[in-house]
Hints:
The protein is of the alpha/beta class.
Amino acid sequence: MPEIYDLHCHSTASDGALSPTELVKRAHQQGVTALALTDHDTTAGLAEAKDCAMNTGIKLIFGIELSTNWHDQCLHIVGLGIDPAYPPLAEATQNLQRTRLERAEKVAHKLEKKNIPGALDAVIKAAGDGMITRTHFADFLVSQNHVSTRQEAFDRYLAKGKPAYVSTPWADLEQGINWITESGGIAVLAHPLRYKLTANWMKRLLTAFKEAGGQGIEVVTGRYNADEIRLAADYAKRFDLAGSTGSDFHSPDNEWVELGRLAPLPVNIKPVWELLH
Length: 277
Ligand code: AMP
Ligand code: MN
Ligand code: MN
Ligand code: MN
């Protein structure tokens, strides 16, 4: 049986469709042997996921996907093997919940100005105890027939530069990396090609990322094709970063992304899981 490491996915603790229990069960069914639950800015789903993992025999790695800011760009940093009880990290996630609620109020206000009322109540209800994300706004816009898909909701309202976009005061990249590494975790740059940075800016970013203590980069994600994997692997090699593999699974409704459905890590890349103990 091959080991399958899926080190990036979401539950209802943020913008995933499945509860932590449902997610772990599905990962197990898909043949995943080690799963990291990495919800946006929260560790609230980890305890439930751990309980389920112990019953199914899958290895659960405690994770998070932190939103950070670097040169006006929101960068996602996956933390693997973190300690959710580490006080500065726990405090940070508490604060981020408030930051996200305050942002949601502003987004809803902007939507109201576009004659779309009711968004705030809807996203608060949909998120429940979990983090409010733009995905919740996208689903609201679909449900009210303002758009027909999530993607269209981002393209017309929620993405940067669109009418309901609100910039968010995320912590700096260095601060985010510190919360992860000081809690005992490994910081991994998530989906490095999604930021559409030039080669020069990638060099600046990966230099800063390493200087701040970052150790890994996602080389294989649920959507990368062979060319993209080669490019990400090339960054891993050049900057001496360990490579991670993670689907970024959110929902069974997205037929393109499945838990554990990942190309293998290229053989010349050091696997990030070898850094986890
Ligand atoms: P937030 O962290 O609340 O700003 O929401 C970010 C989440 O929204 C991401 O993790 C994705 O799941 C989703 N998202 C961001 N941009 C897009 C997009 N262009 N299309 C679809 N989903 C997106
Ligand atoms: Mn998401
Ligand atoms: Mn992300
Ligand atoms: Mn993600």
